[in-house]
Amino acid sequence: MTTHWRIQHGRGRCTSGLIRVQAVYQSLVHMTWIDKLLDDIRTLFVGLYGEQLKSKHSSVVNCDKFAPYFERKLQDLEGQSDSGFSATGTKLTPPSSTDNESADESAPAIPSLQKQQKPLYDTSADSTPVPTPDTSRPSTPAQSHLLAGKAGPGAKLSRRNKKKFAASTSAPVSSGDEASVKRKGKGSTKKNRVWGDFGAEEEDPSVVLDYSQSDLRDEASEGEALAEIDPESWGSRTGKGQFVLKDLDMEMDQIIAEQNAKQAPTSAASGGGLVGSSLGAIGGLFRNVVGGKTLTEEDLAKPLKGMEDHLLKKNVAREAAVRLCDSVKRDLVGLKTSSFTTVEATIRTSMEKALTKILTPTSSLDLLREVQTVNAAGRPYVLSIVGVNGVGKSTNLSKIAFFLLQNHHRVLIAAADTFRSGAVEQLRVHVRNLQELSKREGGQVDLFEKGYGKDAANIAADAVTHAAKTDFNVVLIDTAGRRHNDQRLMSSLEKFGKLAKPDKILMVGEALVGSDAVAQARNFNQSFGPGRGLDGFVISKCDTVGDMVGTLVSMVHATGIPVVFLGVGQHYADLRGLNVGSVCRLLMS
Amino acid sequence: MAWYDEDSWATAAFAPKGSTIAATFLLAVLLPILLHQFIYRKVTPTSLPSFLLIGPSGGGKTAFLTLTERKAVAQTHTSTAPLAVEVLLPEDHTPQSSHYRSLGDPAYERSRRFQLNDTPGHGKLRQFATNQLANPTNVRGIIFIVDAASVAEEAGLNESAEYLHDVLLALQKRYTGATTSKGPKEIPVLIAANKLDLFTALPPHLVAQQLEKAISDVRKSRAKGLKDSGPALDGEDDSLDEEREWLGEGGEGSFEFAQMEEVGITVTVQGGNVIGGDGADVKSWYEWIAAQL
């Protein structure tokens, strides 16, 4: 399965509408022409519907007629890749747009023809058909002949058939003009026969039953239609003097050529003479200050590099910075800067937008509401904390416990770090402090411990059952710190996740970490096995980094998991929710 | 030749000469015309009155927009970008400001024209909506489209209520934070309960009740929640309790939409369905829009 994506910003980014030509092809053989197809289709689409895309304040893009173009292009390219011989064969035959799904869809190719057809179609659609000879029979034989191939529903002729058909039509093709002339004479002389009670009535001009034919008999409109028939619009004469009917192919080529021609001057202008280039440079500088400059990739390259360096200085991991810059570039290429805005300023606002988007959580992160919902289901809410060594897991756990105690919850803290000496004692100190505090605030807190050396997952599971029995409504599980690239240590997390079944797993990452943040977040996210990942990050030590809060962005970028809490100090109360706006401001300052 | 000479331009400008009179006359006649032209050109592209479509994802915002624009519902997908579309009020509704106008009046046609601003409802993309709320120019009203069937369930109700809470809080802040004594222009809110054709959909008055109850809960849990990281990260001392704003009367007791009238926000709840077996039924929404135009 090959998936190709082409994204084009509508030329000039008029509507900022993305034209997305997506092609998904399943094929066993490698198709070399996919790129060409996508390029051509994109150009075609812009050429045909550019105007519609540019119109402001509208969501309607009428492109019903695009299907035949696409089909034809596809067929052409398929034909070319088949063999050289068949490719030339298809080129030589003038396929008179016969393989289109319906005649209606070939409208842009043969506008004059369509004009004539219209009355015919109208009669068939009319609910009051009058059996006059005029309507029951196609008005001109020549026209019907031309239509014969198209009329077949879904008439997709094979290439051989097409050739045959082309051969049969090649002779009378040039008689298009005569046909219409003949038709005119007929239309003006023929009269409706009106049947009365006693045979044919001669004259009753006041009653015209055949309304559908009214525009056919309208001399003026017909003359207009005839005048519009211009041999050039039908097709062109080949070198040998053969008249070749214009078809989709030619029109397509024309549109593509026009589009390419439009693009050519812009590239040519850039490579002008010395005077031209220096003038261009001055103009560019001026534009840069005043605004109204259409951004190209070259314009953006240097400021974006600066932006990337800026982000790196803010402790954003390289990977994340590059991706952010790429997204900004995608966003901006083809855009016109607004008045009195420099390229740098435009990049800044776009980057701020990208940062806001990346940091904004998808759903609400209200811990208290979640606790409420889970408790309503009759079981304790289980929250566990993981992370590498020394990032502040226990500290942040106690901060969360304090926050919950303030809201009068009954909290059980499980000491599932059975590895590091003093880990249980550390938690005991925290619990003692919290008990003192909760005496004033309300709420209740206790420690669940089983000593050292036991299996952490079992302890956690025991803690949950104990909490359910003794009417605690929140269980906080502390785990041992582990290095994220140590398989042996990380593998035990999967078992832990399965046994303890935490409602929420938070990972603590320190704001100081730097570019390792990406790998940490990713490895911890994957360590819980399929179907379970992290639910959020706690970024600790935010008070120590000043404005270098890039770690937040790196971690969220790597996993798409939101930041739930920020640790901003040494006290129990120093836990904060994330304010996306202020983080963006710090990063951009 | 000095300026005070007899042939100088300064003398000529005050002399009763034919050319001077002609020039003065031309100036007198043309200046107002040119000025008028200039100002007319400047002022003509006045932006249309616009309505903001807000609501959680999957509520039917884009469907309503396409219905209004094309008179037929197009197949829609989750929006990722905002969309502004110029539309015309359907014939059978008369804008409030044009009740006295005759049908042939060009001003009547103009008054029926308005702009619908669609915003993405996905959690990550709500910044487009909130940015517009912070500085609403020409916004005549906000249409909060909510799926009446999803409100019947806990998760859908909470999401809608939280979003609506944020929208109303932003509007309230705009009112209370206004520096002029007159206060900013009132922006009414329509809660459009969509998808009433579904069997599980709640009727509009129940939607209103549920939302009021859920917003009370949101307000309560926000009051208990953690402080915002903003001041702490900016290095300010946040130990002082910063002035936080609560929706409705000081954030106490249960919330009712009627409380919002105090801060210039009229909340109306109307039911309808954009898609349905018997076609769309959004007359009440159009009526509301017509009343604001």
TrEMBL record, chain A:
Residues 80-100, 124-143 have a biased composition (Polar residues). Keywords: Endoplasmic reticulum, GTP-binding, Hydrolase, Membrane, Nucleotide-binding, Receptor. It holds the Pfam family SRP54_N. CDD domains: SRalpha_C. It is a peripheral membrane protein. Residues 182-193 have a biased composition (Basic residues). GO terms for molecular function: GTP binding; GTPase activity; signal recognition particle binding. Residues 80-199 are annotated as: Disordered. Residues 562-575 form the SRP54-type proteins GTP-binding domain. GO terms for biological process: intracellular protein transport; SRP-dependent cotranslational protein targeting to membrane. It is found in: Endoplasmic reticulum membrane. GO terms for cellular component: signal recognition particle receptor complex. PROSITE patterns: SRP54 (PS00300). Coiled coil: none annotated. InterPro entries: AAA+_ATPase (IPR003593), Longin-like_dom_sf (IPR011012), P-loop_NTPase (IPR027417), Sig_recog_particle_rcpt_asu_N (IPR007222), Signal_recog_particl_SRP54_hlx (IPR013822), SRP/SRP_N (IPR036225), SRP54_GTPase_dom (IPR000897), SRP54_N_sf (IPR042101). The keyword Manganese does not apply. Heterodimer of an alpha and a beta chain. Belongs to the GTP-binding SRP family. PANTHER family: SIGNAL RECOGNITION PARTICLE RECEPTOR SUBUNIT ALPHA. This is Signal recognition particle receptor subunit alpha homolog. It comes from Karstenula rhodostoma CBS 690.94.
Automatic annotation (TrEMBL), chain B:
GO terms for molecular function: GTP binding; hydrolase activity. GO terms for cellular component: endoplasmic reticulum membrane. Residues 222-242 are annotated as: Disordered. Pfam families: SRPRB. It is a single-pass membrane protein. Coiled coil: none annotated. Belongs to the SRP receptor beta subunit family. This is Signal recognition particle receptor subunit beta. It comes from Karstenula rhodostoma CBS 690.94.
